[in-house]
Amino acid sequence: MLFTNCNMARQYSPHKKYRDSILVLLITLLSGCSYAPQKISEKTAATQPGSGQDELTEALNTIKNGHRQEALTLFGALAKTHPEMAEPFVNLGLLQLEAGNLDAARAAFFQASQLKPELAASYNGLGIVYRQMGRFQEAEVAYLKALKYSPDYGNAHLNLGILYDLYMDKPEDALEHYKRYKMLRGEDKDRIDKWIAAVKLHLANNEEPQR
Fold first, then answer.
1. Model confidence over 50-105: pLDDT tens digits?
2. Helices (H), 8-101
3. Angstrom distances, CA of residue 112 to CA of 65, 73, 75, 119
C-alpha cells in the first residue's frame, strides 16, 4: 500500500467543496502509508537468516500501531544494515513525505528506484514529492514510469489524474486516469464520480479553471 498526499492549488468554479472532498480522500489514503515486499512468506524469511525480513516486519508493525517516529528509526537502521533492500527506503520516503521533509523523501525514493527499478511505489512517491515541489513535468514523468512498471497501480492513476486536473490543465487526460482508478479501486466510488462529473462539466462548458 502506498499513501498519496496533495495540497490543492486551484479549483474549478463553482465547486468549492471539490478541494475538500479530495483532501478527505487523500488523508484517508495517507493513513495506510507502508510498503511491504510482495510474496514474502514466513517460511522464506525463516530460511534466510539475516535477510532483514524480521526487522522489516517489525518496522511495518510499528507503523500499523501508529508509532511513526519509532518506525522512522527502525527503517533508518534497516537501510544501513541492509542497504541492498529497496523496501526500507520506500517506507523512509513515505514517512519523510508525511512529515513534510521533501528533500529527504526524494532521496529515499530515488535510492529505492535505483535498488529495484521495477518497484512502481518508488516512482509514485517521487511523483508526489515533485508535485509538492511544483515540478509538475517531473511529477508526470515519475507517475508515468510507475504505470509503465505497474499498469494497474491505482494510486498512480489517481495521482496522475489529480496532477492533470488541478495542475497541468489537461482535463481529458485527468478524466482517463480518474476512470481508470475508479475501475481498479472500488472504494470512494461516490467521490470519484463527483470528480469525473466536475471534469466533464468543465469540458462541456470549456471554462478555464480559476487560479
1. 678 888 889 889 888 888 999 999 999 999 999 999 999 999 999 999 999 999 99
2. 17-30, 42-46, 53-64, 68-81, 87-98
3. 24, 17, 13, 8
CA 34 to chain centre: 10
Q: What angle (nearest 5°) sits at the alpha carbon of residue 50, between those of residues 44 and 53?
A: 50
HEC secondary structure over 33-50: CCCCCCCCCHHHHHCCCC
All domains in the chain, ordered by first residue: 17-32+54-205 (1.25.40.10)
Q: Identify the CA nearest to 59 among candidates 84, 89, 29.
A: 89
Ranges in the chain, pLDDT < 70: 1-50, 207-211
**CA–CA gap between residue 160 and residue 203 (Å, rounded):** 18
Listed residue (70, 43, 72, 75) closest to 57, CA to CA: 75
